[in-house]
Structure formats: structure tokens, C-alpha cells
């Protein structure tokens, strides 16, 4: 036991500098605030370029959407008065209605075609073990590396011999060719992440190849398939170069009609159509991402 009698009087009377749990918090020294301020300044410095890039990318879309509410007959920004006049004219125009119907039918046909062919092709390229698999993978994704105008010229010469120019069948085949690589690429990402032991477990329980593919493989590939379907729909809906050369007076899609309208009569109707297409794209993306995790594939 310590002998307290030997403690000097000065030591017994000195104040206790240890901080008790109930003592008030001491103010933060300037030396500890400085690194926190520097980190905050660093985050702001790195975030400003990213914010500038987002503003640069979104500003044209915002200008286009605001211009669609212009009350005058000229496409100007900022709008001179707010009105829904151009939305009414677009939705009541027979020409625009025909183009919307044609683009809608094309989107459905292209999505069904590319998802079916692209899913089977991607799964075979990832899981298959056959000679020339690398060459086939390169050929399947080759249209992504070729400028669209080159593809459009080739399709024009090819379809002229087959009598497919200015036909729905020609547009269907052309759009499917352009959109198919996107579906193959996204499904390949999901197929590469697929655990093969799940398929082997289903087979060991007595499921055949077809049943295993339909009940195990396809549900696991769903994010990639949905992402590919979205890409195919957006590609078909916004295709201009191929459609301009393959389509005709009876098969004018919405992008081709927008392109023609911009060339000959620049009024807010094209801004209204573009805003409707952007709104439809956002609704589809949010709805698909709500029920699946396809954003992980993107």
C-alpha cells in the first residue's frame, strides 16, 4: 500500500488535469480543424469538375425541354411565354401519328428479335467450347466498331437488290442489325457472372437442359436481358443514319421526321417531340431499374 504521508502538500493540492466523463467538452484546437477543412476543400475541388461535366451534358436537354413550351412560332430560348400549343399540334398531326406508330412497331419488333437472338448467341459464346469462338465473338460485336453511315450505305446497296428499301421489313432488319451487338454485350456480362454450379445442381436433381435453361439460367440472366432490351429500344428509337437511307416516303420514322423538320421548318414542334421521347425513355429506365438491378450491368 502506498504511503500517502510521503506525498508533498503541493502534489495533493495540485488540480487534476485528467478529463472526467462528465466534464464539458473542450473546444477543438485549430490544429485538428485544419485537416478537416482541407479534406472538405479537396472534396469540393474534385466535385466541381464532375458537376461541371453533368451541367454541360444536361444543359442542352434542359434548353430543348424548356423551348418546347414556347408560345411563339420560333424555336427560341428562353421561351417567350409558356404554352402547350406545340404538344397539341404534334399529338393531333396525322403525319406525326403515323411516325409514332411506325417507330413503336419497330421498337417492339427489334426488341423481340434482338433479345431472342442476342440471348442465345451470348450464352453460347460464353459457355460454348468450340473452334472459332473468339472470331464469332468479334464478328458479333463488330457493328459497334463500324461507323453507322458505313453500315447504312452497305444496307442501302444490299436492300436495293432485295427490294427492301422503303419497307417495314427493311427497317426491321436494319435496326435489328444495329441493336443486336448491344444485347449480346450486356447478356454476355450476365452470363460471365453466372455460377455454373447452380445449373449443375438443377441437372443433378433431374431437370433437363431445356428446363434448366428456362427455370435457372434465364432468371439469372434477367438483368442483362432487360438492359439489352432497353439499349435495343433506345437504339431503334433514335436511329437516324440507317433509317434516312433505308426508309422512304411511306416509312418515315420519328427521328427521320425530326431531322427533316429541323432542315426545312424549325419550330417548337420538334422540341415537343424530343421532350416526349426523353420523358418516355426516363419512365422506361426508372420502371425497369425499379424491378431489377440492371443498372449493375450498365
From TrEMBL:
Record keywords, A-Z: Cell inner membrane, Cell membrane, Membrane, Transmembrane, Transmembrane helix, Transport
Membrane-crossing residue ranges in chain numbering: 44-69, 102-126, 138-159, 171-191, 269-288
Domain of life where this protein originates: Bacteria
Major subcellular location class: membrane
GO-annotated biological processes: transmembrane transport
Domain ABC transmembrane type-1 positions: 100-288
Location of this chain's protein in the cell: Cell inner membrane; Cell membrane
InterPro entries, sorted: MetI-like, MetI-like_sf
One GO cellular component, as annotated: plasma membrane
Topology versus the membrane: Multi-pass membrane protein
Region (Disordered): 1-35
Cell membrane found in the keyword field: yes
Residue spans of biased composition, Low complexity class: 11-35
Similarity comment text for this entry: Belongs to the binding-protein-dependent transport system permease family.
Protein name according to UniProt: ABC transporter permease
Organism whose genome encodes this protein: Streptomyces paludis
Lineage: Bacteria, Bacillati, Actinomycetota, Actinomycetes, Kitasatosporales
